[in-house]
Amino acid sequence: MMDGSAPGYRRIGEDRIAAVMIGVRALDLVVLAGGCLIGYGLRHGTLAMPEPYWAALIIAAFVFQGAGGGVGLYSRRRPGPLPSQLAAVLLSLVATFLVLFAIAYLGKVSQDFSRSWAVVWFFSAVFAMTALRIGLARVGSLAPVWRARAVLLAADGGGGLLARLAADEGRRVDIVACLDPVRDGARLARRCEEAKADVVFVVAPPEGIDDALRRRLRDLPLRICLLIDAVGVDHPLVGPPEIIAGAISVELYPPVLEGGGALVKRIEDLVLGALLAVILSPLMVLVALAVRLEGPGPVLFCQKRFGFRGEVFTIYKFRTLVEAAGETQVGRDDPRVTRVGRLLRRLSLDELPQLFNVLKGDMALVGPRPHALAHDEDFAATVAIYAQRRKMKPGMTGWAQVHGCRGEICAPQDLERRVAYDLAYLDHWSLGLDLWILALTPLRLIRDPKAY
Predict the structure, then answer these.
(1) Whole-angstrom Cα distance, residue 352 to residue 235?
(2) For 8, which of 2, 198, 309, 312 could close a Cys bridge (C-beta 3.0–4.6 Å)?
């Protein structure tokens, strides 16, 4: 691994956090169902809801879970600050009820539902989910599973700040390593991996960080927060800062999409992804049969790849290579490609199962394309800014792909061009750009000579 790049290692406690998040998802569903029943009971004096109301509850459950996943409510990382969690809850509920209202209006069935029931349902869900997050934050401050494992990057150990962080009453972080920006800068990624860190706190001022260290920090798949000692600060602060052990915490390299933008993109993925999965399901069945009938071997090819912020996920594709083909890039006229696989790759039909990655939340419809783990680390060693692509979920298609950046990477220039398009997409993301890329994709695939 090149110094400055960071692998998508599995952080300590992640399994426990995942289990807790499953419980939180279940509690949210209970709250959503309870609010629906309470609203109906108050309006009609009975809990025996008719079928249309149950249908509304089922739709709301799916939409809320999907919207919540898009804004980080159920992240496999440790929860963020309480205000951001509460904002994510509110955004997810608003999105859920807007979808319900849109379905009722377009289906011309809005008259079948009580408005007072919907109002009680919405506000009871807001209140209960807010109370749930406050309670979890209170209990979580005492539980190691919720505490972030932090690396402190500071000259001379950060002075008294290290002692204050260690003795913080809220116990929101555990300092697992204290590194010197000069002595340990070149090995920062490796040291963070060894410490199984979740966040890096930088005590040195931004102007005291040289370009090489700044790049290494930017490329880490972790939260990077600048800590400003609040002791002695006598000027007013703009906005609600996060305070940790008396220090102001400011995230230096936040995700490209947060809050409303992340919610919009997640709704886009859920709505269009589900629609495409339904429309293309007959084609996927035919492709699966063709792969199975051609010869022995699994229908699906599953492979580990780096996702958002370096998290590893399993990508799904229809198998196009012979078994035990290895991870070497596929070239033109590659003998490992099967006869059916050659057609599938030419039309990119082998990528269709990734619609389920999109619905799961591992991928997006549009974003930087993910590569095999071994290739990813080689690419990070070739292009210094390569890891910045991980600031957004990987996509089934992307800005680079509609500009002809597909197929085998034969030279560093090919990779540099692809990364340049990916980062341009991150800088200029919009819903309109996503829809334009999705519209261009099938047209470009038909004429792309690099599709093999």
Answers:
(1) 55
(2) 312
